Automatic annotation (TrEMBL):
Homodimer; disulfide-linked. GO terms for molecular function: apyrase activity; ATP binding; GDP phosphatase activity; ribonucleoside triphosphate phosphatase activity; UDP phosphatase activity. It catalyses: ADP + H2O = AMP + phosphate + H(+); ATP + H2O = ADP + phosphate + H(+); GTP + 2 H2O = GMP + 2 phosphate + 2 H(+); UDP + H2O = UMP + phosphate + H(+). Belongs to the GDA1/CD39 NTPase family. Catalyzes the hydrolysis of both di- and triphosphate nucleotides (NDPs and NTPs) and hydrolyze NTPs to nucleotide monophosphates (NMPs) in two distinct successive phosphate-releasing steps, with NDPs as intermediates and participates in the regulation of extracellular levels of nucleotides. By hydrolyzing proinflammatory ATP and platelet-activating ADP to AMP, it blocks platelet aggregation and supports blood flow. PROSITE patterns: GDA1_CD39_NTPASE. GO terms for biological process: nucleoside diphosphate catabolic process. This is Ectonucleoside triphosphate diphosphohydrolase 1.
Length: 485
């Protein structure tokens, strides 16, 4: 006769089934409860009204996590067609109109139920700073037009204003450090100004209060050094270099910063039409001059060096033009034109030694203009003509201006974006205005989701086994093997 299995009693079968159901239920609840639920998002829009162009950025973050770490991401960007808003000084209405296309895009990108609560900011930088110096009335009119245009959209308009150079530098630093895990200095090269921001050693306390900004980020207090050099952006510094070389009002000017064979006619009035150079305009000059290239990196560096004043410094140390700068500290992220130029020249790799960068530039500058044009038929001719000058300026600014050495130069990373967000001041600006700069370090869950689920499963199994064992007293007695007598 077949021996009856003692486990096949109704009681043990019921206990087992209930136990299995309980475990499955427990694990299912744990998994479902902790599964990331589809997020609701909030949005913020910042218009970066730069000297050369305006760009619109849309940021998004999970609705419940306003104050959480690193959660704000760039959702979309739009490049406004045409030049920067300061170029519309003579026809301000057009500055407002120029923004409509990107604003319509923003209307499409941000869900309509969020429109009314979405803050919209416009920050203008060095182009408007210069226009404001040159012609206050014209600058006000441009802002009026821009304001009127932006108020016509369904967002929560929060104003348009000129950022100070200090704000521009500091918010660039906040952006980079909000997105990146390790503290990094920020180098921004615009069209009309350039910023350097970093956290110096504690003992290099700022001797110049106007260069110092305090921040609390991720539970740490930072004393930031920052400076913005007006007129030292890529376009204005080129004007200064051309002005320096046309002081005598020549008809033809030979420029080491442009390729051999390069030749264009430039207008004196147009060249000197900027507060960065207007005072230097030669008294007696013809209408135009012919700007020709020579293509010599080392001579070009000499020209660029004359644009920095190294003689006066009332502090213990200066970068240039009598501006205090503590010793450089840590690694740096260099963006905007630093990136555009070094990327074109294939020099963004930090492992390339400074000497090689210079040698490559020397070789590039020497290349005849015709050959350069043939090699890069798709690159905008204005940019193409200026890469030799801009590359030389970047190397000279970093080494002679900011005192990067061949050792510290390798600590500069040329970057366009970090984790999908463009490097620049806009994200930091929005985080600050919406009180979202995280003061404290993130509360990360102690276990990753998978680890959590595994632990719940193991504990549930253990509990089940213990439960079964606790039922031992009512276990059916194991029948002994039938003995054959
Ligand atoms: O910060 P400010 O000084 O106000 O200026 P901006 O914000 O308009 O300046 P950008 O960083 O946008 O650009 C810096 C410069 O780089 C130029 N630029 C943009 N794209 C470029 C490219 O692909 N190659 C070379 N230069 C480029 C641009 O015309 C500017 O002169
Ligand atoms: Ca800029």
């Amino acid at each position: 006769m077949k021996e009856k299995n003692p486990w096949h009693t109704p009681l043990t079968i019921i206990i087992t089934v209930i136990g299995v159901i309980a475990i499955v239920a427990l694990v299912t609840v744990a998994v479902l409860q902790n599964r990331p639920v589809p997020q609701k998002y909030k949005y913020g829009i910042v218009l970066d009204a730069g000297s050369s162009h305006t760009a619109l950025y849309i940021y998004e973050w999970p609705a419940e996590k306003d104050n959480n770490t690193g959660r704000v991401e760039q959702k979309h960007s739009c490049k406004v067609k045409g030049k920067g808003i300061s170029s519309y000084a003579a026809e301000p209405e057009k500055a407002g109109v120029s923004l409509t296309e990107c604003m319509r895009e923003a209307e499409m990108q941000v869900p309509s139920r969020r429109h009314q609560e979405t803050p919209l900011y416009l920050g203008a930088t060095a182009g408007m700073r210069l226009l404001n110096i040159e012609n206050r009335e014209a600058s006000d009119k441009v802002f009026e037009a821009v304001e009127k245009a932006l108020q016509g959209f369904p967002f929560s308009y929060q104003g348009a204003r000129i950022l100070s150079g200090q704000e521009e530098g500091a918010f660039g630093w906040v952006t980079v450090n909000y997105l990146d895990d390790q503290t990094t200095g920020a180098l921004d090269l615009g069209g009309a100004s350039t910023q350097i921001s970093f956290v110096p050693h504690e003992y290099d306390i700022s001797e110049s209060p106007s260069n110092s900004v305090a921040f609390r980020l991720y539970g740490n207090d930072y004393n930031l050094y920052t400076h913005s050099f007006l007129c030292y952006g890529k376009d204005q510094v080129l004007r200064m270099a051309l002005a320096h070389q046309t002081q005598s009002g020549p008809v033809t000017m030979s420029d080491p910063c442009f390729h051999p064979g390069y030749s264009v006619t430039r207008n004196y009035n147009a060249l000197y039409d900027s507060p960065c150079v207007s005072e230097r305009k030669p008294k007696e000059a013809p209408l135009n001059f012919t700007h020709t290239g020579v293509g010599n990196f080392f001579q070009c560096q000499e020209v660029v060096k004359t644009l920095f004043n190294f003689t006066s410094c009332k502090y213990s140390r200066c970068s240039f033009n009598g501006i205090f700068q503590p010793p450089l500290q840590g690694s740096f992220g260099a963006f905007s034109a630093y990136y555009f130029v070094m990327n074109f020249l294939n020099l963004t790799d930090s492992s390339i030694p400074l000497e090689t960068v210079k040698a490559n530039l020397a070789n590039y500058c020497e290349t005849p203009w015709n050959q350069i044009k043939q090699q890069h038929p798709k690159v905008k001719e204005k940019y193409l003509a200026e890469y030799c000058f801009s590359g030389t300026y970047i190397v000279t600014l970093l080494t002679e201006g900011y005192n990067f050495t061949k050792e510290t130069f390798s600590k500069i990373k040329f970057i366009k974006e970090i984790k999908g967000s463009d490097a620049g001041w806009t994200l930091g600006y929005m985080l600050n205005l919406t009180n979202m700069i995280p003061a404290e370090a993130p509360d990360s869950p102690p276990l990753p989701h998978a680890g959590y689920v595994s632990i719940v499963t193991v504990i549930a199994l253990l509990l089940f086994i213990l439960f079964i064992l606790s039922l031992r007293p009512i276990w059916p007695k194991c029948s002994k093997q039938p003995q054959i007598v």
